[in-house]
Design goal:
Layout (H helix, E strand, L loop, with lengths): L4 H11 L7 H16 L12 H8 L28 H9 L12
Length: 107
């Protein structure tokens, strides 16, 4: 899984509108993202999987073996404001390059 400080700072500045992001803000983004990605590893069940199955099913070309993580909805640490989002809006945000945790073109 690729996480890039430059992308995290861009998310803090552009999306979360933080003027001076701290390491705590970056850690919040990382912890929320990693919690979402690895939550299936915490519990046993027929629908849950391990990292090997995730890699086999998500990566269709053998040379492409790094996970680019997109996360939505993005919220800052102290944010109390929430709004309801549709599945379509969440999907668009998740695949948007502004919500990727690494600097790369996802296309």
């Amino acid at each position: 899984m690729v996480l890039c400080n430059e992308a995290l700072y861009d998310i803090c500045f552009r999306t979360l509108k933080l003027t001076t992001p701290s390491f705590g803000d970056l850690n919040h983004l990382i912890s929320a993202t990693m919690s979402g990605v690895t939550c299936c590893l915490c519990f046993l069940g027929q629908l849950n999987y391990d990292m090997h199955k995730l890699a086999v099913n998500l990566i269709s070309f053998p040379r492409l073996y790094f996970f680019m993580i997109g996360f939505a909805p993005l919220t800052s640490r102290g944010s109390q404001q929430y709004r309801a989002l549709t599945v379509s809006e969440l999907t668009q945000q998740m695949w948007d390059a502004k919500n990727m945790m690494c600097v790369a073109n996802p296309r």
